[in-house]
């Protein structure tokens, strides 16, 4: 199962990079307080303090933490140099029918569009994929798609102004550095080098970009290429947004987010940090789900060699296990590792850990 973006050499030559403040907001909302990047967790904590509860509830209803789909009207196709107030104005101006259609896609009980259903293996699979209508969204949606767009735009603008704006110059520096690095690699090694390390489950065949998903479809209107958008809050495989006739957008995790003070996952307990050191404590708290060295490298911004070295020490200390599936090796916390990552170690646990060193 895959989404296929038809992209021949001519269309590829028209592809370009852009940045999007709305995409940064989306990443904060998607992962809440469990985001692996410390700066994004801090932004979400600020949002909980700064936003009226109704606004944050609406945004989190539109961008669920437990579902893969968020409506595309929240993140309009980026325009060069556009500010968040300008983006919010475009969100508010989204046609009501477009908002309703995007809500229909993923909300159970709303209209089923045949071409959306056709992307899934069966009607039952599609219904399982859809989600219930959250109360915070239901209260606004009863007044129609235009009301949802207006309320969402106001909430997005408030979140950005209250939370991200003070850090935006640093964020832009990271995003611009990522784009510059990839432009240099393209000049040195060719256009295909742009795709190196953007994320797993994506490849270019020479005529198509193939993104592995649990559903299938073809995007055949990328005549003007695609927009590559780095985001410091993105996690996981490359995200795509594609609504005809707009230019398809591919969002990936920017490199260099350590400059924003990133420390993966939750701030490690002082006792744990003292026992294993900051890097290993951070890796241990990040492993709330099994992950490969490459995945951990992308989450943390550390090199694969650094991650591998510290995982080896955690493995020898009995704090993580590893398992192989095909060519991929994934690491997972042991019971002891989980206990230490979730609470301050003491007694026997601390003694058992002492050999992990710094």
UniProtKB/TrEMBL annotation:
Protein name, per record: Winged helix-turn-helix domain-containing protein
Domain of life, source organism: Bacteria
Domain HTH arsR-type: 270-341
Record region (Disordered): 339-358
Keywords: DNA-binding, Transcription, Transcription regulation
SMART domains: HTH_ARSR
Matches recorded under Pfam families: HTH_20 (PF12840)
